[in-house]
Amino acid sequence: MLKKIFNKLLRHIELHLAFNRLRIWKTIYVNFRTLPFHIAWKLPIYIYGPTRLYSLAGNIEIKGPIRRGMIMLGRDLGLFSAQHKSSMLFLDYNTKIVFSGPCRFDIGYAIRLTNNAIAEFGKYTRFGSGTQIIGDHHIKIGDYTGVAYNSCFMDSNLHFTVNIESGMVKNKAGEVIVGKYNWIACGSIIRKGTVTKEYTIVASRSLLNKDYTKQEGEFQTLAGSPAKIIGTSHKRIFSRAIEASLIQYFKTENHSEKHLTPEEFQNASFL
Question: Rounded to two decimals, what is the model's pTM?
Answer without folding.
Answer: 0.89
